[in-house]
Every structure is written in structure tokens, then in C-alpha cells.
Amino acid sequence: xxxxxxxxxxxxxxxxxxxxxxxxxxxxxxxxxxxxxxxxxxxxxxxxxxxxxxxxxxxxxxxxxxxxxxxxxxxxxxxxxxxxxxxxxxxxxxxxxxxxxxxxxxxxxxxxxxxxxxxxxxxxxxxxxxxxxxxxxxxxxxxxxxxxxxxxxxxxxxxxxxxxxxxxxxxxxxxxxxxxxxxxxxxxxxxxxxxxxxxxxxxxxxxxxxxxxxxxxxxxxxxxxxxxxxxxxxxxxxxxxxxxxxxxxxxxxxxxxxxxxxxxxxxxxxxxxxxxxxxxxxxxxxxxxxxxxxxxxxxxxxxxxxxxxxxxxxxxxxxxxxxxxxxxxxxxxxxxxxxxxxxxxxxxxxxxxxxxxxxxxxxxxxxxxxxxxxxxxxxxxxxxxxxxxxxxxxxxxxxxxxxxxxxxxxxxxxxxxxxxxxxxxxxxxxxxxxxxxxxxxxxxxxxxxxxxxxxxx
Length: 457
Prior knowledge:
- The chain is mainly alpha-helical.
- Helix content is 82%, strand content 0%.
- Helix 12 packs antiparallel against helix 13 (302-336).
């Protein structure tokens, strides 16, 4: 079990490390422009945060079907699955791209009233909005490569595109050489160019290699029956709803933090960016657990899958403790890299340390929800447990502590942690009930191969 878990988790961890590292470098460069620039980019990117998780939900559901059809050698169904997922992804991205381009002042104004933040935030959002459509295509093609055992391709392309983003930031933010100094707008342009490059590379490689998941919208090539669409939506909808509603909850947190002022918003972007570094291992374990448990259940080995669930959850506890200790200890070093006032650095350190104390709980929750419950096809329970805790516990705690009592950000984080505690209680109850470990009978497999794919969720 450990060998399979590590084989799956390590590549995911490496890609997350790559993305987080280069994003952190971007934040450092933008941070050199001052707290207003950090806050502006942070609030402007809330829209992309929502759409990224929308893409994640769609691509996760799509990858389940692609993996099953790839194993069966059914190339036509692979193309249908990828094409349908891409249509939904493009529709969502076009809508959000239009809203971000047409009404950036309204979106940024939700989070702040500071004119020094609104102006660069509007400029950044209007430019980066054009990249959403390219990101939609990249998400589906990346899922296709991973589902066919070629995860190294999106990893390498991510390395190229993110490096281009970081280099472009350096040239356009500061005006190096012949390039103009565009500051925040330069960061947006670098992001746009890098996402276009990533999308084009994925498409070119997929079609050049004649990958079985390459989409086709030619007349007569894409025939989707109502049964196919219904099965696809039923399978993927819980994950899609989970990611979209969760992302909206996180946006509401930022709205609450914004009542504390621009310094608090800048601090939140710094502390959460640093926290992402230490959560990489947990994310990899969660995704790896879903596949290991799903495959085990697919073989009809329910008792072994339950045992794996307990073992992986125990491992995640030790991982969470270790990462929490590292985050707590290294927080002053990370915070010192930002060119902001000492007051913001001190608040960032305090906020990071609060998050580090919560790291074991967050890691346990991630393993249960993303790994064990989805791996056992218990997506409905994972949806209800996570979203109920976000909206009934976390969001009220954020607005009460920040908007009503105006507590410092580190104490607001502590108040919001009630969400994680609630999820842990509900998650452990479900884990030990063993009801999450759902198997599909041979009769069902013969009757509907598509529903078999839910074992991986």
C-alpha cells in the first residue's frame, strides 16, 4: 500500500511544490511594490480562485471516466468524455471571464474600499480575465494526460509556463531592459502569456501524439446520449458542487478579512501563501489516498480498503504534526523576505503560527474528505460535511470576529478554525462507521460501466 501511495502522491507533491514555489516568488516580486499591490492582486485573484476550483471539480470527474475508458481501450468514449467536460469548462470560463472583464470594479469593490487597492486591482483583473478560457482547456487536457499515465507531460509543461510567468513578472513588473515598468499590470500580462503558452503546448502535444482523449467537435463525431450526460453529471456533480461552494466560502472569508483594512488583506495573502508550502504533502497524500482506496474497492477488497483508510489517516496525523512544527519554526524567515512594514511582518508571523497549530487537523480533514470519502464513492457525505461546516461555522465566525469585534487577523484565524474542528468530528464519525467504503457489484458493473467510475471519487 505504501509503495502505491508514494508512487501516486510524490508526482502530485512535486507539481504542487512547483506551482507554490513560483507563486511565492511572484508574491515576493509584487510585494516589493508595497502592501497595496499585494492586497490588489490578492483580491483580484479571488475570481480565478473560484474558477480554478471549478476546473478542478470538472477535471476530477472527467479523469475518472477517462481512466476507465482508457483501461477498456474505448477511445470514442474517451473523446466524448473529454469533449463534454471541455464544453462545460469553456462555458463557465467564458461567463466568468466576461464578468471579470466587464465589471472588475464591482468585483474588487466587494473586498475593499481603499482606492489605492481598487485601481491596480481593477487593472490586474481586467487583463488576467482573458486567461480563464485558456486555463479551461489546459485543465481538461492535463486530466487527459494524467489519466493515460503520462502525468510527466503536464508537469513539464507547468514547469515551462510557470517559469515563463515568473520571468515575465520580473521583466514587466520592474521594467528590465527594453521592457516598460508596468508593476501590477505587468504581473497580469505575464500571467496571461504563460497560460496561453501552457494551453497551446498541451493541445499541440496531444494532437501530435494522437492521444485518445483529444477532443473533436466535428459533425457526427460527438454524439452524446441523454443517458451518457445524465450518468456523467450524477458522477461528477458532488465534487463540482463541493469545490465551487467551498471556493465561494473562502471568498467570503476574504470579504470578512477586508473589514480589518488593507494591512490585514496584505497579511492574509502573505500568511496563506506561506501556509501553502507546508500543505503540499497533505494535498499529495489526499489525492494518492483516493486512488489507492478506490482501486482496492474496485477489486472487491472492502476490508482491506477500510484498513488502508485507517492507516493513511494515522500517517496523515504524523505528517500534519511535522509540517506544523516546520511552519511554526520557519515563519519568521519566510515573513522577513517581504518588503512590507514591520507591523505587517509581525502580524503575518502570528497568523502563520496560528495556522501551523491547525495544520494536523487540516491534514486529517484533507485526507478524510479528498482521499478516503471520495475514494470510497461517499462524495455526497463529503459534500454535506464540508460545506455545512464552512457556511454554518466558519463564515459566521469570520464575520463575527472580524467585522463585529475587529479582532486582529491571527485571532480571526483562530475563530475560523471552528470549521476545521467541525469537519474533523463529522469526518471521524464517518470514517469509523465504515459506511464510506462502497463497492459496486459485478451485476452493476455489467449494467453500467460508467457508474463503476465513481469508485475513484
